[in-house]
């Protein structure tokens, strides 16, 4: 804890040797000394007369927050000319004599011409006001600011350079934020082609070059350049096919076409890139981002420092593989080629993958052993997650069987006609199944998920992006290699991509122009995080698996313990495992109830008592903290209900609409439960563990969805398809069907083509 002006604040451990820029965005959180350059378009209003006060206040708040974390913040700001222009215009209007105003008349007074204002005069008039504004804003956060005005000559004179350097270091030492600007009141016009003369020289002709020069002089870790565009594009923003460049590398200038500069200010994007590359060469990392967008300007600086995918990051380290955006485009192109294959060809790919899982068993298990050893040594995984991470010969054999089921059932998945209608004579409409597009599947500690999901994507003709947990890196790598080997037999290797970059899940969820559906496979926390982060991309899945088993008064003694044991103990970490056991009140203190408790004790299941159950006991187990708990381990809650109706109400109130079970021999009671419980899967006298794509005969599943649209329950091939409409006509136009037209609508249902019997 550090204190300044009696305000305590938390410091973060920040230290690194200067001399080399950060290689990845994720390292930016370690930046200690940061320069924030505010372009004219960021600081000024749209009319260029005055400051954008709301935007400026937000920037000051972010800089203050980072300063109070123990970082050393500096601001290079524009805005003096705009602020001065506003003041001078006001003064000129006020200085008009009353006589001039009377002679000109009201109508002409409105249109009174304002003389063109010289920029240096505006800067002289605006610098003091701009600084006063910064001081007032930083004071709100108990932070002191200091103004420094510089010119190009200050960097060419060795003594002045040392003085400037010493002043800045002293201000930073005292926790003061330096506000730096070119002294536009006296600065001479820049000489053409005078900048970037080697590593040690950069002409300060605008605030971009000033920020770069200062960043290198002060051995800054990070330079953030805020402008009025999202970052660097490969062609002028707004032009067709212009794409934002996520990471820019030295030498990439040839691939970029620069447009005009911003509406205000001295430098355009080309000047920013030159300055950024110069700073990068001097050991300072650079990000160019949008500081004017109303949705992101309130957190753009902090997002950059946290390593989020904002703007264009300049890096000297070029990754060996493609970017995730390139992978998504490859997956889309590969998926379209995959969808165009014959059904037999897609099935052949899946059969080949199933064979590879058994043929390459030893290599797969060896890679998995590395993952398990690393996880155990680091101690970062709980026992249930270690079980999920583990592969075995029997698991691989089961996977291969499931994949062959998918291949056999996928023959007519894509392009199947599900509706035919004759709209009019020679005008026939068909609704056919088609792939969704590009799927992003994010999974934790489940390497067996990779071939399952890959097979379902192949069968449904979808492109696939896979993001696995780092704890299963070795297993995922070899399983993805085998998947691509199988895809290669029909030339669609790129249809399934494994994301190996340091891409954060939150950043992947923002690729709404490249990804059509996100499917999370993992903990409830992972699913909730993805649902929160996804912007404009639908998410299929469930955030929790709170599954119930209700034991009715008419339950069979032989069935109860078997079903409960299987539901809870067979695989307690699964999302379809029993979490809450509901028991009818009349069964308390009966031999059946004693058998249930004895079985759970033998299986070492920790019992938590619900409020009603606890009230019946003199000495009860620990009372449950919440009836909406997914334990994912050998633990469960027991609660008492008075009737099947109350059991249904309890499930609706505390359940997650995943899987719920009734055990009873009373068919009427069972049917009431089946019809009234509003969950994706509702069973009678069967374990919750049957809620699974493989056990349902789907071959495998991409997950279990509790959504109420598109797909629900275990999601197999059908859940990865959507439809499109095909209309075949012969010179048909809508006007022919008007009141006085020559044609009439028929809307006749036509028979569907016969499905493949195989």
Automatic annotation (TrEMBL):
<keyword id="KW-0418">Kinase</keyword>
<comment type="similarity">
    <text>In the N-terminal section; belongs to the glutamate 5-kinase family.</text>
</comment>
<keyword id="KW-0808">Transferase</keyword>
<comment type="pathway">
    <text>Amino-acid biosynthesis; L-proline biosynthesis; L-glutamate 5-semialdehyde from L-glutamate: step 2/2.</text>
</comment>
<dbReference type="InterPro" id="IPR041744">
    <property type="entry name" value="G5K_ProBA"/>
</dbReference>
<comment type="function">
    <text>Bifunctional enzyme that converts glutamate to glutamate 5-semialdehyde, an intermediate in the biosynthesis of proline, ornithine and arginine.</text>
</comment>
<dbReference type="InterPro" id="IPR005715">
    <property type="entry name" value="Glu_5kinase/COase_Synthase"/>
</dbReference>
<dbReference type="GO" id="GO:0004349">
    <property type="term" value="F:glutamate 5-kinase activity"/>
</dbReference>
<keyword id="KW-0560">Oxidoreductase</keyword>
<dbReference type="InterPro" id="IPR016161">
    <property type="entry name" value="Ald_DH/histidinol_DH"/>
</dbReference>
<comment type="similarity">
    <text>In the C-terminal section; belongs to the gamma-glutamyl phosphate reductase family.</text>
</comment>
<feature type="domain" description="Aspartate/glutamate/uridylate kinase">
    <location>
        <begin position="32"/>
        <end position="290"/>
    </location>
</feature>
<dbReference type="InterPro" id="IPR001048">
    <property type="entry name" value="Asp/Glu/Uridylate_kinase"/>
</dbReference>
<dbReference type="InterPro" id="IPR016162">
    <property type="entry name" value="Ald_DH_N"/>
</dbReference>
<dbReference type="InterPro" id="IPR005766">
    <property type="entry name" value="P5_carboxy_syn"/>
</dbReference>
<dbReference type="InterPro" id="IPR001057">
    <property type="entry name" value="Glu/AcGlu_kinase"/>
</dbReference>
<keyword id="KW-0511">Multifunctional enzyme</keyword>
<dbReference type="GO" id="GO:0005524">
    <property type="term" value="F:ATP binding"/>
</dbReference>
<dbReference type="InterPro" id="IPR016163">
    <property type="entry name" value="Ald_DH_C"/>
</dbReference>
<protein>
    <recommendedName>
        <fullName>Delta-1-pyrroline-5-carboxylate synthase</fullName>
        <ecNumber>1.2.1.41</ecNumber>
        <ecNumber>2.7.2.11</ecNumber>
    </recommendedName>
</protein>
<dbReference type="GO" id="GO:0055129">
    <property type="term" value="P:L-proline biosynthetic process"/>
</dbReference>
<dbReference type="InterPro" id="IPR019797">
    <property type="entry name" value="Glutamate_5-kinase_CS"/>
</dbReference>
<dbReference type="InterPro" id="IPR000965">
    <property type="entry name" value="GPR_dom"/>
</dbReference>
<dbReference type="InterPro" id="IPR036393">
    <property type="entry name" value="AceGlu_kinase-like_sf"/>
</dbReference>
<feature type="domain" description="Aldehyde dehydrogenase">
    <location>
        <begin position="323"/>
        <end position="588"/>
    </location>
</feature>
<dbReference type="InterPro" id="IPR015590">
    <property type="entry name" value="Aldehyde_DH_dom"/>
</dbReference>
<comment type="subunit">
    <text>Can form homodimers/multimers.</text>
</comment>
<keyword id="KW-0641">Proline biosynthesis</keyword>
<dbReference type="GO" id="GO:0005759">
    <property type="term" value="C:mitochondrial matrix"/>
</dbReference>
<keyword id="KW-0521">NADP</keyword>
<keyword id="KW-0067">ATP-binding</keyword>
<dbReference type="Pfam" id="PF00171">
    <property type="entry name" value="Aldedh"/>
</dbReference>
<keyword id="KW-0496">Mitochondrion</keyword>
<keyword id="KW-0028">Amino-acid biosynthesis</keyword>
<keyword id="KW-0547">Nucleotide-binding</keyword>
<comment type="pathway">
    <text>Amino-acid biosynthesis; L-proline biosynthesis; L-glutamate 5-semialdehyde from L-glutamate: step 1/2.</text>
</comment>
<dbReference type="InterPro" id="IPR020593">
    <property type="entry name" value="G-glutamylP_reductase_CS"/>
</dbReference>
<dbReference type="GO" id="GO:0004350">
    <property type="term" value="F:glutamate-5-semialdehyde dehydrogenase activity"/>
</dbReference>
<dbReference type="Pfam" id="PF00696">
    <property type="entry name" value="AA_kinase"/>
</dbReference>
């Amino acid at each position: 804890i550090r204190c300044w002006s009696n305000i305590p604040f938390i410091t973060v451990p920040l230290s690194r040797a200067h001399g080399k820029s950060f290689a990845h965005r994720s390292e930016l959180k370690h930046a200690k000394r940061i320069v924030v350059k505010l372009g004219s378009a960021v600081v000024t209003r749209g009319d260029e007369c005055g400051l954008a006060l709301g935007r400026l206040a937000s920037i000051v708040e972010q800089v203050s927050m980072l300063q109070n974390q123990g970082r050393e913040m500096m601001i290079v700001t524009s805005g003096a000319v705009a602020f001065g222009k506003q003041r001078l215009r006001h003064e000129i209007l006020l200085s008009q004599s009353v006589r001039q105003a009377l002679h000109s008349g009201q109508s002409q007074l409105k249109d009174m011409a304002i003389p063109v204002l010289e920029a240096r005069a505006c800067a002289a008039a605006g610098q003091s006001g701009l600084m006063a504004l910064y001081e007032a804003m930083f004071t709100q956060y108990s932070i002191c600011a200091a103004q420094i005005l510089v010119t190009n000559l200050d960097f060419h004179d060795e003594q002045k350079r040392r003085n400037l350097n010493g002043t800045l270091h002293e201000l930073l030492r005292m926790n003061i934020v330096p506000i730096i600007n070119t002294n536009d009141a006296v600065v001479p016009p820049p000489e053409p082609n005078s900048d970037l003369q080697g590593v040690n020289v950069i002409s300060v002709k605008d605030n971009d070059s000033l920020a770069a020069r200062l960043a290198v002089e002060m051995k800054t870790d990070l330079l953030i350049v805020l402008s009025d565009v999202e970052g660097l594009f490969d062609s002028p923003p707004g032009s067709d096919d212009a794409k934002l460049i996520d990471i820019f590398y030295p030498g990439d200038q040839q691939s970029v076409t620069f447009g005009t500069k911003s509406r205000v200010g001295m430098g355009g994007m080309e000047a920013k890139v030159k300055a950024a590359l110069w700073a990068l060469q001097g050991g300072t990392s650079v990000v160019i981002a949008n500081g004017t967008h109303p949705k992101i300007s309130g957190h753009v600086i902090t997002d950059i420092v946290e390593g989020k995918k904002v703007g264009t990051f300049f890096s000297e380290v070029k990754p060996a593989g493609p970017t995730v955006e390139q992978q998504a485009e490859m997956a889309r192109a590969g998926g379209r080629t995959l969808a165009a294959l014959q059904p037999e060809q897609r099935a052949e790919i899946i059969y080949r993958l199933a064979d590879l899982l058994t043929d390459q068993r030893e290599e797969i298990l060896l890679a998995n052993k590395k993952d398990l050893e690393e996880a155990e040594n680091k101690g970062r995984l709980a026992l249930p997650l270690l079980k999920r991470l583990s592969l075995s010969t029997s698991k691989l054999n089961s996977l291969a069987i499931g994949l062959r089921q998918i291949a056999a059932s996928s023959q007519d998945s894509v392009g199947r006609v599900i509706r035919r209608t004759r709209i009019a004579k020679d005008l026939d409409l068909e609704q056919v199944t088609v792939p969704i597009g590009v799927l992003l599947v994010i999974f934790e500690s489940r390497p067996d998920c990779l071939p399952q999901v890959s097979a379902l994507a192949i069968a449904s003709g979808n492109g696939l992006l896979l993001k696995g947990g780092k704890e299963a890196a070795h297993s995922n790598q070899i399983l993805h290699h085998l998947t691509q080997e199988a895809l290669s037999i029909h030339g669609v290797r790129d249809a399934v991509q494994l994301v190996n970059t340091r891409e954060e899940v939150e950043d992947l969820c923002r690729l709404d122009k490249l990804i059509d559906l996100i499917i999370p496979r993992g903990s409830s926390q992972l699913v909730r995080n993805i649902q929160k982060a996804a912007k404009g991309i639908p998410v299929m899945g469930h955030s929790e698996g709170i599954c119930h088993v209700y034991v009715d008064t008419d339950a069979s003694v032989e069935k109860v313990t078997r079903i409960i044991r299987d539901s809870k103990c067979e695989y307690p970490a699964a999302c379809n495992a029993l979490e809450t056991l509901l028991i009818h009140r009349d069964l308390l203190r009966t031999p059946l109830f004693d058998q249930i408790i004895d079985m759970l004790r033998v299986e070492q299941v920790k019992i938590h008592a619900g409020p009603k159950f606890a009230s019946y006991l003199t000495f009860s187990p620990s009372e449950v903290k919440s009836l909406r708990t997914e334990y994912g381990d050998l633990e469960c809650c027991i609660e008492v209900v008075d009737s099947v109706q109350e059991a249904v109400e309890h499930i609706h109130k505390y359940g997650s609409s995943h899987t719920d079970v009734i055990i009873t021999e009373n068919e009427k009671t069972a049917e009431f439960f089946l019809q009234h419980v509003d969950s994706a899967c509702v069973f009678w006298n069967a374990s919750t563990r049957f809620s699974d794509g493989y056990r349902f005969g789907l071959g495998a599943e991409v997950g279990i969805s509790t959504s109420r649209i598109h797909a629900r329950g275990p999601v197999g091939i059908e859940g990865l398809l959507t439809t499109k409409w095909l209309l075949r006509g012969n010179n048909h136009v809508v006007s022919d069907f008007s009141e006085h037209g020559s044609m009439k609508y028929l809307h006749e249902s036509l028979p569907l083509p016969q499905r493949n019997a195989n």
